[in-house]
Write a structure and sequence with these properties.
67% helix; two-stranded antiparallel sheet; 152 residues; mainly alpha; 434 Repressor (Amino-terminal Domain)
């Protein structure tokens, strides 16, 4: 991996853990597969620009910082705010993180409900299509029986 990207994997892992997210949760939120996230965190793979933009937006840090800054140090200046390591966070921040987790799970449940609704609608359409095919087949069988005088 290039020297300028030396902090990337560690930073992604640090930022994910700071948000108290598992790889599965982060995957659901970002649309990046769990295995790809693991590869990024372990510096086994280098993401393209689009993935870097997703990380930048998701963690609210610059791409430059993700790639070139050791974010796991005790303090980091970012956009005028100080980000402090987890052990020095206040209870108020933990409350916000709990709220973030709540919002995450609420969003995930909403997505699953939408997905289940979509699958249900697709199954209904398939069933209607099959019923229509069966009706057409029954009509054709009846016509053949009438023309040939044979019964099934």
């Amino acid at each position: 991996m290039e020297r300028e990207n030396q902090y990337f994997g560690h930073n992604i892992k640090f930022l994910r853990k700071r948000k108290k997210l598992t790889l599965v949760e982060m995957s659901a939120l970002t649309g990046i597969s769990k295995s790809a996230l693991s590869d990024y965190e372990n510096n086994k793979s280098t993401p393209g620009l689009e993935i870097l933009r997703i990380f930048s937006s998701f963690f609210e840090v610059s791409i430059d910082d993700i790639l070139k800054t050791d974010m796991t140090g005790p303090q980091l200046k970012n956009a005028g705010q100080t980000i402090v390591k987890e052990e020095t966070k206040t209870d108020h921040i933990y409350e916000n993180l709990d709220q973030e987790k709540y919002q995450f799970h609420l969003k995930l449940l909403h997505q699953r409900l939408e997905s289940a609704t979509l699958r249900f609608q697709m199954l209904q359409q398939l069933l209607q299509s099959k019923e229509s095919e069966n009706k057409t087949l029954r009509i054709n069988i009846k016509l053949l029986e009438e023309k040939t005088g044979l019964r099934s």
